[in-house]
Amino acid sequence: MLIFFLLGYLLVTFKGKPDIIIAGILFGGSIFVAIMLTITFMLMSRTKERSIDIAEVLIGVIDARDPNLNGHSRHVQNLTMLLYEYIPSPKKKLINPVSLEYAALMHDVGKLGIPEIILNKPSKLTDEEWQVMKKHPEIGVKILEPLKSFRHVFPWILYHHEHIDGTGYHGLKGWRIPYASRIIAIADTYSAITMKRSYKEPRSHDEALAIMQSVAGTQLDSDLVEIFCNIPKNKVLACKPEKVDFDIGDIPDNIEENNTPEA
């Protein structure tokens, strides 16, 4: 619309008999549209800032309820956006980076609906407890349902625990898993492996990459694993929030051999 007013103004001014009134109207219209666009942009920026603030408050509540998370959501957000920088351009065009950032930050918001006795258990969960824990993606979507602007990212949050071979929470397989969910899964897995938990010691960066490579094509997207493993180590380590307890050096000797951790 702004371009329409400006072109009209130029045509009236430089073609044929100049009509001062029409030219003035068109020029005034272009200024009005420019002002409205500026105001809209400012409001959108403020809305985004408020949304981020609300999201961070929710994440703070989750971290307070579950000491095992200890900044995990922020770590996943940082890792997700780092990985996004390295994915092929055609894939980037399929995903809005702002939406991806929100989804990564809020991927575990559903843990607000999980009993603290399960969240804070210092040992491994029983099969029954694990079934309750596996409901957190669905609970997260229900929590975010009133936020209409988030609706397009609900599937990304809901399916971030799917496995490429179809053995994940909902049984989605391969390309049926949203690409954004596969990106978040890479970040989530790395964070879960390298974070200290009440029931396990943290693994090193190199050990984490080795574990992720071992499940590439079964649990994780093999192309994304390859991309992630080729990101400079210093950039990956820089994603660590200050309060998160990691091991970036040697691997402790007393770590149990288990399946790849999932946060």
What report would you give on this structure?
There is one protein chain. The longest helix has 46 residues, at 20-65. The protein folds into two domains: 1-65; 69-263, Hypothetical protein af1432 (Orthogonal Bundle), CATH 1.10.3210. The chain has 13 helices and no strands. The chain is 57% helix and 0% strand. Helix 1 (2-14) packs antiparallel against helix 2. By secondary structure, the protein is an all-alpha fold. The chain is globular, with a radius of gyration of 24 Å.
What is the name of the CATH class of the largest domain? Mainly Alpha
Low-confidence stretches: 4-10, 21-30, 39-45, 246-259
Number of helices, counting only DSSP H or I runs of 4 residues or more: 13
Q: Percent helix among the residues?
A: 55-70%
Which features does this protein show?
263 residues; single chain; 0% strand; 13 helices; Hypothetical protein af1432; globular; 2 domains; mainly alpha
